[in-house]
Design a protein that fits this description.
The structure is a single chain. The termini are far apart. The chain is an alpha/beta fold and 480 residues long. A hairpin with a 3-residue loop joins strand 5 (168-171) and strand 6. It contains 17 helices and 14 strands. The radius of gyration is 30 Å and the shape is elongated.
Amino acid sequence: MQYIILDTETDFDGWRTAARTLVLGHVQPTDVTWTVQGGEADLFAPPAPSPILEVNEGTFSVSGKFVDLAKSAILHRDPERFAILYRLLWRLRDNHDLIEVATDSDVGQVTAMARAVHRDEHKMHAFVRFREIGRERSAHYVAWFEPEHHIVELAAPFFAKRFADMPWSILTPDLCAHWDGHALSFTPGVSKSEAPGEDRLEETWRSYYASIFNPARLKVKAMQTEMPKKYWRNLPEASIIKPLIEDAERMTGAMIANAATDPHKPQRRPEAPMIRRPATNDLDALREEAAHCRACPLYKDATQTVFGEGPDNATIMLVGEQPGDKEDLAGHPFVGPAGQMLDRALAEAGVNREKVYVTNAVKHFKFVPRGKIRLHQKPATPEIKACRQWYEREVSAIQPELIVAMGATAAQSVFGKITPVGKTRGRLIDLPDGRKALVTVHPSYLLRLPDPEAKALEYQRFVEDLKIAAAMQRKASRAA
């Protein structure tokens, strides 16, 4: 008898390695016992796994369909899944096409387990509700979920992509997933007592759910199939589901009794005409004029124009790429996480932040909505060109000696063409008007680096680039 102990409940690599060795060693499925480290041991199992078999040289292959099915089925909670998969693998060695026989009992069982796993994954995507812990910049979002199968690692990337800009944790009894804005991590499972209670957003969510509830389309059985009652206790809308169902008949009758209305006509926000004023180099006048800019479509979705800020006699002009979510809401450049990193780097480099003019190549926030989150989207060349007039007029008003382009979009605006950051970074470049330019990375690039060592190294390179600007600022200060 061979006793195989896997590292975790989802140890597919460990199962695959052991299964391959067992098949090549001609070990019958009935002669293998599978367990998981730390799990309930077989009554007659030895205290340690069987030694690795010594097998003759050999190989065999299975279809990609079996591998995909096995990767999913191994996440099922059935304790016999490892044995069932090995039995099917054993049979596939001699009958390669068996995986296509849907009526085969082993194939059917593995397929059903894989479907159950993906169905549970879908339920997790649909029924996780985050609750806010803390406020403002210190906010963290936490959710509780009880999966039927071992799907946390499978489902977590979906949340990392959809809620990329907010730190969150999903707590489950098996495994907890965490996202810090850069990378996923996992910790052991916890009890429900560690999950948060209601937050300030609960009532808002209930109001929204009630507003979209359509009693005329209510099908209770179908609703319970898609949203089983076991999930209700973790949903903020659960408390109003029963009253809404009970009131559905009255609401439907009222809808029928009301007179028909004209079809809804889409409403468009009236577009204010772009205000055209005589050309001026006064910063306040420029800022007011830019507030009404309609040169590209970005103004339609952005909250407001985010113009540059700083002294009108600054020696150094820092040019970023575009305002982010925080800047769009505040109306000021570099007030979010990237701005905080920039302030720290300027201080370490010796640049007097109060004597620097800070702006962006594009003055409106370009984004893609993902639920409640607005994800930054890189400006396109037509948008950069449309906004370049404001950059040129800022330069004319301030007359800086050095322009620091942070990121590829900023470099394209400063040089008037696509300019690779890597090839031009960290050295002074002469501009046609006699000024100097310095190209470096955008601080948001540093925030996105997942590896701490790489982030620390790139941050120091960023500071070294800014020290070139600091030297010019000191030189200009002495000359004055």
